[in-house]
Amino acid sequence: MPKVRRSKKSPPEGWDLIEPTLEELESKMREAETETHEGKRIHESLWPVFKVHHQKSRYIYDLFYQRKAISRELYDYCVNEKIADKNLISKWKKTGYENLCCLRCIQTRDTNFKTNCICRVPKGKLEEGRVVECIHCGCRGCSG
What is the predicted pLDDT for the residue at 114? Predict the structure, then answer.
C-alpha cells in the first residue's frame, strides 16, 4: 500500500484517524494515473484523476467545515502538504459554488466564448433530455 506523501514534518494530532481514508484515495489516484487511455478522447483520460482529486479535497473540507471533526492544525497541514486543494475549498465556501467540480469549469479563458463550462448551467435552463458532460472533468452538472 503506497503511503500518502508527506514532508519530514510530523503530522498533527488526529492524522491517524484520517490517514486510512487518504491512503485509499491515494491508491485510487495511482490507479487512475496508470489506467490505459486507449479508445478514449484526449480529455477523457484525465477525468478519473479530477474525480479522485475532488474526493480528497471534499473529504478534508467536510471533516473541517461541515462536521468539525478535525483541528485547524490538521486542516492546515493537509492544505500545506497539498493533500487538499486550497483554492477549490475556498470556492466551496462561497454561495453558488458549493458543488463545484473543478476550478477549470469556472475559468472563462478555457472556453470558446469566454463563459463558464456547460456543467455550470442549471438543469432547468437546458432543453429537456439533454445530456450535459463537461469536457474538462466529466462532470454532469455541478451548478445545483
Answer: 86
pLDDT value at position 26? 95
Is 0.70 surpassed by the pTM of this model? yes
Cell of 12: 498533527
Could you give the angle at the alpha carbon of 46 between the alpha carbons of 119 and 139, nearest 5°?
20
Angle 74-76-82 from CA coordinates, rounded to 5°: 105
Residue 21's nearest CA partner among 46, 55, 71 is: 55
Spatial neighbors of 142 by CB under 8 A, at least 6 apart, are 99, 100, 101, 105, 119, 120
Classify residue 66 by its DSSP letter.
Answer: I
**DSSP for residue 26:** H
Question: Rounded to whole angstroms, how far apart are CA atoms 23 and 25?
Answer: 5
Burial of 13 (0-12, 13-18, 19+ CB in 10 A): exposed
Block means of pLDDT (10 residues each) for the chain, length 144 residues?
A: 68 94 96 91 90 96 97 96 96 94 88 85 82 86 79
